[in-house]
Amino acid sequence: MLAGVWDEPRPPCPPVRVWRDWAVVAVLVASSFVEVLLREDQAWAPLLVGVGLVVAACLLWRRTSPLAAVAVAFGTLLAFDVARIVAVDATGLQSIAGVLVLPYALLRWGAGREAAVGLGIILVWLSVTLVVEPTSPAERVAGYGFFLFSAALGAAVRYRTSSRLREIEEVRLRQRNDLARELHDIVGHRVSAIAVQAQAGRALSAADPARALATLVTIEEEASRTLTEMRALVGVLREGTGAALAPRRGVADIERLARPGGDVVGVRVQVSGDVEVVDPAVGTALYLIAAEAVTNATRHASGATRVTVDVTASRGRVRLRVHDDGAARTAGPAPAGYGLRGMAERASLLGGTLRAGPDPAGGWSVEASLPRPVRAS
């Protein structure tokens, strides 16, 4: 823990000096001059004013150079106190109480090692000045308490700000992951379907021009839907854009994945149970998982001729099974990529489970089980 504190870097982007900083410095400088003018002992007035000016000026660099500001300010005060012990018969100015801001700035804006060194300088000065000034034990404890409280307050504000920044970064990371998942599941599925249809059209162009033309029409429709859904995703990122364009697929749309066999892998869809009252979020997740699984089977299942999609809604859960009859891999890990990760994330976010792997009966299966909260009527 101590090593982690020692290696703690400075917080990024410390604020620049603003008018309030200059106002505080002006007040401290004016207070120093007024206090010197009202003193009866004027012998050491220039020295006292000089100390006050140095302390006030250090406040201007307390954020950008916290250790240097602490070292100069408290080093000056330490030298002044040593001079008081040796030769100078003068009391300090009350206006130098502005140094209480520096321990706060040190813990708020300094690196870990800067904070440790700076606190050491402050404690050394406190030990000397409390010896020079005739103080009671209670006053000494109060003196240490004031400066340690200022430092603790700076550390607390820094921790709170860092926690807030981490939360914001986590939210941004989740948003990026959500966007990546949407792009992969929605747009990626559409583009994959277009590629498959284009391959079929090329194979049919010479033997059956009519079917090839029908395939081109399908490609055009898929491209139009892809463009619409891409605009919807982009619209989510733009402030003020409504969500009306956002795609909202459901369990009923899974039946649209069905297609006859032939030049491309055939897809058979069977839906059973009362799926009309499935929660929209669950329905959308099931559709996207099914579409991604069908796309993967179409593109990657070696020797597959048919893909079956079974959706079963029971009392408490909805189950999806996508199976292809391709050559099953009996060894090795599942194929790497964002598809399986995205499907697993969708199921997990809704409290469900997903399993993908070789089927004991042959081929490859993707099985998802999601809870079934009933949609309010």
Automatic annotation (TrEMBL):
> Where does this protein come from, organism-wise?
Pseudonocardia oceani
User: What UniProt keywords apply to this chain's record, in alphabetical order?
Assistant: ATP-binding, Kinase, Membrane, Nucleotide-binding, Phosphoprotein, Transferase, Transmembrane, Transmembrane helix, Two-component regulatory system
Per its record, how is this protein called by name? histidine kinase
> Where does the Histidine kinase/HSP90-like ATPase domain start and stop, copy by copy?
284-372
Query: This protein's superkingdom?
Result: Bacteria
Signal peptide limits: none
Report the PANTHER family cross-referenced here. Answer: NITRATE/NITRITE SENSOR PROTEIN NARX-RELATED, NITRATE_NITRITE SENSOR PROTEIN NARQ
* Residue ranges constituting the Signal transduction histidine kinase subgroup 3 dimerisation and phosphoacceptor domain according to the UniProt record: 176-240
Q: Which residue spans traverse the membrane?
A: 44-61, 68-86, 92-109, 116-135, 141-159
The reaction(s) this protein catalyses: ATP + protein L-histidine = ADP + protein N-phospho-L-histidine
What EC identifiers does the entry list?
2.7.13.3
GO molecular function annotations of the record: kinase activity
